[in-house]
Amino acid sequence: MLRKPNIVRGYKDEAYPPIPTPATRFWRGCILWQLVRFFVLNLKIMRIVVGGHS
To answer: What does pTM read for this prediction?
Structure first.
């Protein structure tokens, strides 16, 4: 009985994560932007918490 050889194929391009653009990399590393997003997120959380205690 003959066996077929195992064929190893590479992954398709869709399997790999997208590469961030230079603008995306800039905004991820910008400390001022991260502080703004931090406070906005905290305000959203506080709205939910305070709204649940009324």
So the answer is: 0.57
